[in-house]
Structure formats: C-alpha cells, structure tokens
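Z., the sequence and structure:
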Amino acid sequence: MERYITNESGKRTAVILPVEEYEALVRIAEDAEDERVVDESFEEMRVLRDRTGGKATRSLDEIEAEIERESEFRQG
C-alpha cells in the first residue's frame, strides 16, 4: 500500500497512517505539550521566587488550575 500522497510533480504532500498510529502520535504530542506547560510553570515559579526573595507567590492549586486551563484550551 502506498503511504504517501504526492502532487503532480511527485513531491510528497501527505502521509497515510493507520488510525492507531495516528492516535499514538497525537497522544505523544499531547504528552509533550503537557510536559512543556509544567516546565514553563516551574520556570515561572523560579523567576517569581527570585524576584520575591524566596517567598511563594502562587499556590500549587493555582498552578494546577492553570495547567488544566491550558490543557482544556488545547483540546478545544
């Protein structure tokens, strides 16, 4: 089975994947995005900690809520 769609000049323009492979790739991308959001939140916490002399300025609940909002936004 041909796994690529090509244009008139033979350049590959799309790929055909079984649904299971596509869904696995989507899960990997979503997991990577979740990890990025967590990393950004921790970096923001470090910056805020440095600016405030070590005082906490955001609770864990606030950070978790932000991560949840980001996740819901991505899912549409």
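The first strand starts at residue 4 and ends at 6. The two ends are 34 Å apart (CA to CA).

Let me know what you think.
H.
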